[in-house]
Design goal:
About 25% of the residues lie in helices and about 25% in strands. The protein is an alpha/beta fold. The protein is built from 17 helices and 26 strands. Strands 3-2-1-4-5-6-7 form a 7-stranded parallel sheet, with helices on both faces.
């Protein structure tokens, strides 16, 4: 048989989140969909638009991304850099459907199909990336995995007196986005019905399949109840309310609430009697081994709560609200609680009654069985449609391919080893420079799930836009810089030149390096490509205080303070402590450049700092914030004390 006929047909999957590690519900959904396609006999080319990498850094967190893990799972992995600042807020009533899909995403899709013209389908995750489907060639089947309904999503925040910081739009915009696809995938039945009334595109229900990890068994007792989650708003609002409810009247004879996942970083100070934080756990088994019953006390949100399916797959009985189990078609009263108080009552009821605990366990098992049957039937319908759209059936899959992967994000089994990466790797390795008491090591690799290296030190920067030419931009290979102190590293601080990098919050915000080392690092990055640049004038100084008149992106004038600021003059650098930002009425400085094209309009402001150990005649201020890197070039004439 000719080799071309034995190759698996390929599907391009485009997502604004990585597929590894599987540390959030949207990542679990992405992995589950890719596993379904793999079971159907298709090869997956995954394109990660690094939206989440930018968002994590803007909140002072290291982005949990595992490029090597993804490369072990998929035929090809491509990285699309987020070259513009993604807006998390809008002054309009809703985001426009394309505000979160910049040109670089469509440019990648056009490049991909010129390089891989045999690919038969393109699937984008989230309706806000639907514009990329306009660059797909005619004859290629196009799909949108919706994940959630986004029209009117902001209204869910009103009872909490909060403002959303994720995408939301209106019904007309959502309909326009869905119309760009041949097939729309809904994660649960209620949303499938909604989408069917909104678009003429074919709507398919595709609940994620959760392979059974452990059989159900009635716990000996309920010593601990568990919640596992990502730090998004629905989880934070819901578990925050439940923590307060659970603590009220808690006594040591009641179960302990244990919370795990990235959400723990956003719950400082909640630990105490009845509540314990486990932090981020690498293995899901480690969490479910500590939870006798899992709670889903969700008070807001749409889509399907992946944490519920995951808990059921590990054989754990679940208690939750109607919102928490939406899409699972629950019948048991403990699966349809009205609020956090009702969840608490249901937990206490089974904790004190062995028969009630047994009924809950077997009701959870029946729920999981019904759900799994519906999910596999929906998966078969999708695979049949994809084979139809391709015009022929893919080669048969072996038992290994049908087995799928684990709910913890492990790669689905392959009947044969994956083909070599395209384009091939070149230039992997490390190089180091010394000076100013620091050793700076540059590593070129695809490993990315790291904040520090035991040998190389703290991660300080990651290259954003490597190489030249279209193909080079899309490789997961990146240069990363690590820093460690070394008293013997004498001489001037190394000058790294005009690098285009994202700085790591581990050294910018968390201050994991000593002050002297931070100043040396700032000098090394003095020539860094800034997201915005302007001019400034020193208008006052007294002792270690300094005042600078300049222009700032509007968002910084309105109250967002820098994570760090460094005054750099020649070979010297010192860190400043920001005290205040004062809006000015007169615009005295005119030079300003926004490299992102998305920052708010600049406003005149006065910056007050303490800690100035040098007063430059010229020089610059490196202004590092959650929203990027700023450089303020100071005037040659500096006032004297």
């Amino acid at each position: 048989m000719p080799e071309a006929l034995t190759e698996k047909p390929a599907i391009l999957v485009l997502a604004p989140m990585p597929a590894a590690p599987v540390s959030a519900g949207n990542r679990r959904r992405l992995v589950a969909t890719c596993e379904a396609l793999t079971r159907g006999g298709f090869a997956i080319d995954l394109a990660y638009y690094a939206h989440e990498d930018q968002i994590y850094r803007r909140f002072g967190q290291h982005p949990p991304t595992d490029c090597l893990g993804m490369e072990r799972t998929f035929r090809n992995v491509f990285l699309i850099e987020a070259r513009t600042v993604i807006p998390l807020k809008t002054r309009a009533n809703a985001f426009g459907i394309d505000e979160w899909c910049p040109d670089e995403v469509g440019d990648f899709v056009a490049w991909y199909f010129s390089a891989y013209p045999e690919t038969g389908a393109a699937l984008v995750n989230y309706v806000f990336l639907s514009r990329a489907l306009e660059r797909v060639p005619p004859g290629v089947l196009t799909l949108i995995d919706t994940h959630d309904r986004f029209a009117g999503r902001q209204n869910q925040y009103r009872p909490f007196r909060a403002e959303p910081n994720f995408f939301y739009t209106d019904a007309a915009s959502e309909a326009a986005g869905l119309a760009r696809a041949d097939v729309v995938l809904a994660i649960q039945a209620a949303e499938a019905g909604y989408f069917a009334g909104l678009t003429d595109s074919r709507v398919l229900l595709l609940p994620p399949h959760f392979p059974a990890q452990k059989p159900f068994s009635v716990p000996e007792r309920v010593a601990r109840i568990g919640f596992l989650g990502h730090g998004n708003d629905p989880n934070l609002f819901s578990i925050g309310r439940f923590i307060r409810t659970w603590r009220d009247g808690w006594t040591p004879d009641r179960p302990e609430l244990v919370i795990a996942g990235e959400i723990c970083r956003s719950l400082p100070g909640v630990e105490g009697p009845g509540v314990r934080l486990l932090g981020y756990l690498d293995r899901l088994e480690d969490f479910y081994a500590q939870a006798d019953v899992v709670v889903a006390p969700m008070l807001m949100g749409s889509g399907l709560k992946m944490k519920v399916g995951e808990a059921l797959s590990f054989g754990r009985p679940v208690i939750g609200t109607e919102i928490g189990l939406e899409g699972f078609e629950p019948m048991e009263a403990a699966h349809r609680c009205r609020n956090a108080e009702a969840v608490k009552e249901a937990v206490l009821a089974v904790a004190g009654d062995r028969d009630a605990l047994a009924r809950l366990t077997w009701a959870s098992e029946a729920l999981f069985t019904r759900y799994a049957e519906a999910a596999m039937a929906a998966e078969a319908e999708l695979i049949g449609l994809l084979r139809e759209g391709r015009g022929s059936s893919p080669p048969p899959c072996g038992e290994e391919a049908r087995g799928g992967g684990g709910a913890d994000g492990t790669a689905p089994p392959h009947p044969e080893p994956p083909p070599p990466r395209t384009p091939p790797r070149k230039g992997e390795g490390t190089s180091a420079v010394r000076g100013g008491g620091l050793v700076l090591t540059c590593e070129t690799s695809a490993r990315s799930l790291l904040a520090a290296d035991p040998d190389l030190g703290v991660l300080v920067a990651t290259e954003r836009r490597p190489g030249h030419g279209a193909a080079a931009v899309y490789t997961p290979l990146r240069r990363r810089w690590f820093a460690r102190t070394e008293p013997g590293a004498e001489g001037a601080a190394p000058d790294l030149g005009a690098l285009d990098v994202a700085l790591s919050p581990e050294w910018v915000r968390d201050r994991k390096l000593p002050p002297e080392a931070r100043a040396v690092l700032a000098r090394a990055f003095a020539g860094i490509q800034a997201d915005w640049e302007t001019e400034g004038r020193i208008v006052g100084c007294a002792g270690d205080r300094i005042e600078i008149a300049t222009l700032l992106p509007g968002v910084l004038v309105n109250g967002t303070h820098p994570a760090a600021a460094f005054l750099i003059a020649g070979e010297d650098a010192c860190e400043l402590r920001p005290e205040r930002v004062t809006p000015l009425h007169r615009r005295e400085i005119h030079a300003y450049a926004d490299r992102t094209g998305r920052l708010p309009a600049p406003l005149p402001a006065s910056l007050s700092f303490r800690g100035a150990s040098l007063l430059p005649a010229g020089g610059c201020l490196l202004f590092l914030t959650d929203d990027g890197i700023g450089r303020i070039t100071l005037s040659e004439e500096a006032p004297r004390p």
